[in-house]
Structure formats: structure tokens, C-alpha cells
Specification:
mainly alpha, 106 residues, 2 strands, Arc Repressor Mutant, subunit A
């Protein structure tokens, strides 16, 4: 894998995340797949960590494939949940988001 390939994957991930509209969510795996590497969900997590502040990405709209927030309580979970609720996203009793209702498709 060349650096150029990594860079373009990263750029595609950033662009995809930047276009998730308010009130909708995407999964790490979904972003990875649309960016060209279905197995790179962990890389999407890394891109979010390294790029969110610099590129003002709507990081809070990216969740795991179970429809749950991947962050742990005390490490951003509460903030992410509050930001999503502010945008009209609802959670069930188990803390899951209904992907049929809120999943964005690029």
C-alpha cells in the first residue's frame, strides 16, 4: 500500500463524514466501504480522531454498526448522545439508534 493510497482514502473518509446531514448517522464500516476499503472501519476511527478538529467534521454522526455510540461513558459518550438528540435523533432503552430510520446513504 502506498502513501498516496492511504492519503486518498483518508481524504475520501473526511469528505464523506463532512457530508452526513444533521439528524442522520453513518457507521464506521459504511464510511470505510464508500471510501473504497470495506475492511477499514478502524482507519475511519483513526481519521476521525486525527481530523475532527482540524476539518470541523461532524464526528458525532458516526456510530457503530449496532446503532450505538462507540465512545465510553466519560470519554465523549454523553456529549455525542446530547449532540445527536439536539439534531432530533432518538435512542431506544438500550441506547441504540434505529438505523432504518436515521442511517444516511451517500
Amino acid at each position: 500500500m502506498t502513501d498516496h493510497h492511504d492519503m486518498s482514502f483518508t481524504e475520501r473518509v473526511r469528505k464523506l463524514i463532512a457530508t452526513i446531514p444533521p439528524g442522520q448517522v453513518a457507521t464506521y464500516g459504511q464510511i470505510a466501504t464508500h471510501a473504497g476499503n470495506p475492511r477499514a472501519a478502524r482507519q475511519v476511527v483513526r481519521v476521525l480522531h486525527s481530523s475532527t478538529d482540524k476539518y470541523h467534521l461532524p464526528w458525532h454522526r458516526v456510530i457503530n454498526s449496532k446503532g450505538q455510540i462507540g465512545l465510553k461513558p466519560g470519554q465523549g459518550y454523553e456529549l455525542q448522545r446530547a449532540m445527536l438528540i439536539d439534531e432530533g435523533v432518538t435512542f431506544d432503552e438500550a441506547g441504540r439508534i434505529d438505523l432504518k430510520r436515521y442511517l444516511w446513504s451517500p
